[in-house]
Specification:
By secondary structure, the chain is an alpha/beta fold. The chain is built from 17 helices and 13 strands.
């Protein structure tokens, strides 16, 4: 099937579904695959998982005799013409049915043909394992959108501050500049505070008027809109930051953050999101969608108190580990030591960023990058980039190793 062919299983063709239609039915060729599928899917079906062990031809025969379930899983392994096998399903699958496929073809082009051109929701090559099936197929089987869909595309990292003024924008801007400017990964710096435009000022680019337009009409978000709205800071670093009028009322559509996140992650390798101290609305949506949170605090009692509240926040759906904790603007004369802060938080400090004093303020005002200069600040940002997989070199085996390798003091 060539690109541009109409989908066989087109979600737009959904007809009213009978309430008696089974939620899910699976057809597999061998007992081993059936065992793995039962282990992964059966707990979600207390009334019983409908799973048949039959050849592909038997699957077609069975489906031709019944009203198609809402979701079906078909095994095409062993078929000489697997794409032709999928085409044969068109005659026996009712409109609106979601089709999942497993087989023995492991090529990327085959996967794309099924999921992009033929309307198959997901394809997994054998051999399967329980974790893979749970992650990729279970959400579809129970009638939900799979969380795993969010893993496709670039990585989104949210930088949060334990209170205002702890240096989130400075670290976010320099981290984004390092990834986009030096490691040459396509990167976008997203400022989720729609009224201040701090990231635009720090990156020395104008604020965008397109960000508000995108969030007001998320169904119109596409790569072209993003290209118009984002401003280039370097060849591979763009900035998306708004500076809306403080007294102007406008409508933020629910789901706008998710739509924008999906579009950005399809366009960029890394989305570095600057989250305000009080995340509401759009900022809260982006925070929940990020794969990783970075929590920034200073060595003060107030900052430590706010950091504890951030640590206690529920993790987002894609956040599989605790926030990376960054101690910013640190010097040895401060009363709270890194060891004490780590003990209070119950979380190791991954990176310590030295106090640069007026130098950091001047760089922020002039839109200059501190990470381009050799010294301990750059070392800290490089360590952070490695921790999120955005810079060459192995990440530290333990967060403590990252702390130990950073010298504290003026660069």
């Amino acid at each position: 099937m060539t690109p541009g062919t109409s989908l066989l299983f087109d979600p737009a063709s959904v007809e009213p579904l009978s309430r008696d239609r089974p939620l899910f039915m699976g057809f597999v060729r061998d007992a081993e695959t059936a065992h793995i599928l039962r282990a992964a899917l059966a707990p979600a079906f207390p009334a019983g998982l409908i799973l048949h062990t039959v050849p592909f031809a038997g699957s077609l025969e069975r489906l031709g005799q019944i009203e198609t379930p809402r979701t079906i899983l078909i095994d095409i392994s062993g078929e000489d013409q697997p794409l032709s096998a999928i085409l044969q399903l068109e005659a026996v699958v009712d409109p609106g049915t979601r089709v999942l496929v497993i087989g023995d073809n492991r090529s990327v082009s085959f996967y794309r043909s099924l999921t992009r051109n033929l309307g198959v929701k997901e394809y997994l090559p054998k051999p399967l394992d329980i974790a893979m099936v749970t992650r990729e197929l279970l959400p579809w089987a129970i009638g939900a959108e799979p969380i795993a869909e969010l893993t496709r595309g670039g990585a989104m990292v949210a930088l949060c501050g334990a209170g205002g003024g702890v240096g989130v924008t400075t670290i976010a801007t320099n981290l984004a500049w390092l990834i986009g400017g030096e490691t040459r990964r396509h990167t976008i710096l997203l400022d989720t505070d729609l009224y201040r435009g701090g990231a635009a000022l720090a990156a020395n680019v104008p604020p965008s008027t397109g960000l508000r337009s995108a969030l007001e009409a998320p169904d119109r978000i596409d790569p072209l809109l993003i290209e118009r709205a984002a401003h280039p800071a370097t060849e591979r670093l763009h900035v998306l930051a708004a500076e809306e009028a403080l007294n102007e009322v406008w409508s933020l559509r629910p789901g706008g953050g998710r739509a924008l996140s999906n579009a950005l992650r399809q366009r960029y390798n890394f989305v570095i999101a600057d989250i305000p101290a009080r995340p509401l609305g759009f900022a809260a949506e982006i925070l929940a969608l990020a794969q990783q949170r970075i929590l920034i605090l200073e060595a003060s009692s107030q900052s430590l108190r706010h950091a504890k509240r951030w640590i206690d926040l529920p993790a987002g759906a894609m956040q599989t580990r605790r926030p990376i904790v960054i101690l910013n603007r640190y010097h040895r004369k401060q009363p709270l030591s890194p060891k004490l802060i780590a003990a209070e938080l119950g979380s190791e400090i991954a990176v310590i960023v030295p106090d640069l004093g007026a130098k950091a303020v001047r760089a922020s005002d002039l839109g200059e990058t501190l990470v381009s200069q050799k010294g301990s600040f750059r070392d800290a940002i490089v360590k952070l980039a490695r921790l999120i997989g955005a810079a060459p070199g192995p990440p530290p085996a333990k967060a403590a190793e990252a702390v130990a390798s950073i010298s504290i003091g003026a660069p």
